[in-house]
Specification:
The protein has 164 residues and is an alpha+beta fold. It has 2 helices and 7 strands, in the order E-E-H-H-E-E-E-E-E. 17% of the residues lie in helices and 20% in strands. The longest helix has 20 residues. The relative contact order is 0.09.
């Protein structure tokens, strides 16, 4: 393949230097060329456009449309990196948003009586009357401050102490 012809007043591929369809024309970044600019389609370089960067390669392998690499070349890596960081932060916040409040079971969870049933409740609620302070094999193994216990899964008991 011969090198692109350099016409007077501009730099572009000429009749002897135009490669085949497996190659694409690479528009210099400082040219205000319209999208799809390609000398093979009859587009001409405006003589008022600035000179391309030194050693600019006008022809290269055709890239697959889309893709992160193409996007990075168009907008730069810094904005893509910033977007990626924001996505990671939002995903992390979303993944842990269920951690807000107190646990619904096990040590640290709070409970209140509703009729003859114990119901879980956020420990900051005015309804909260008991807090699970330990998990034990049996109610006899609970700490001395235990006033009640709940059967827990997969076995054993959760030891309840009064709040406040």
């Amino acid at each position: 393949m011969s090198a692109p012809v350099q016409p007077p007043g501009g730099v572009t591929g000429g009749p002897q230097g135009v490669p085949g369809p497996e190659q694409e024309f690479k528009v210099p970044p400082n040219w205000p060329a319209p999208a799809g600019f390609d000398p093979r389609k009859g587009h001409l370089v405006d003589p008022t456009w600035p000179a391309p960067p030194p050693d600019w390669q006008f022809w290269g392998k055709r890239e697959a449309p889309g893709g992160l690499g193409n996007l990075a070349r168009r907008v730069g890596f810094a904005p893509l990196f910033a977007v990626l960081v924001v996505i990671i932060i939002v995903a992390n916040i979303s993944a842990h948003s269920h951690d807000v409040g107190s646990p619904k079971e096990g040590v640290g969870s709070c409970w209140y009586h509703k009729g003859d049933k114990a119901m879980p409740v956020d420990c900051g609620s005015s309804k909260a009357k008991y807090k699970v302070i330990a998990h034990a094999a049996t109610d006899d193994d609970c700490p001395p401050s235990t006033e009640a216990y709940l059967d827990s899964k997969p076995g054993g008991v959760d030891c309840l102490a009064p709040l406040g």
